[in-house]
Write a structure and sequence with these properties.
seven-stranded mixed sheet, two-stranded antiparallel sheet
Length: 148
């Protein structure tokens, strides 16, 4: 079966895609992909790093190997909702600097994951990224979700 590289993982395509049946199946695979989003898989980050919402997945998985400063770029224009989830696995003892536009639930910035730990964070904006509402949504996961 032929395949197409898609968001870091391989998407099958049906032989005979020029036929009505094959094209219909391929269209349904594309529909599922667009609904499910996908995961921008395990990028290693350090230093200044842009979380680019134009990538379109809404879920990002990073391994932090040095102190990192995140910025969130390309949100939806106001008044549309922009939201995404960030899974962070810490390698060593590192610091994370979040954008100053993040307002944390309860008014308290959460602590960063410990060495070898994975935490999840969710961010939402209704004003084109001027203000981000941040939530520490998971602490010390054993396994990070991936495709499949």
């Amino acid at each position: 079966m032929p395949t197409t590289e898609y968001l870091g993982w391989t998407k099958p395509t049906v032989d005979g895609s020029d036929s009505t049946w094959g094209q219909t199946v391929n269209d349904r695979i594309d529909d599922i992909d667009s609904l499910a989003g996908g995961v921008t898989l395990d990028a290693t980050v350090t230093g200044a790093h842009d979380v680019d919402l134009a990538v379109g997945t809404g879920v990002f998985q990073y391994t932090v190997t040095g102190d990192v400063t995140f910025s969130f770029i390309n949100p939806n224009a106001s008044p549309s909702l922009s939201s995404f989830r960030l899974y962070i696995t810490m390698s060593g003892t590192r610091t994370i600097t979040w954008p100053s536009s993040v307002k944390w639930a309860g008014g308290i910035e959460p602590s960063v994951p410990g060495n070898g730990q994975t935490d999840s964070f969710t961010f939402e904006s209704l004003d084109g990224g001027t203000t981000w509402y941040g939530y520490h949504t998971g602490d010390n996961f054993a396994i990070v979700p991936g495709p499949g």
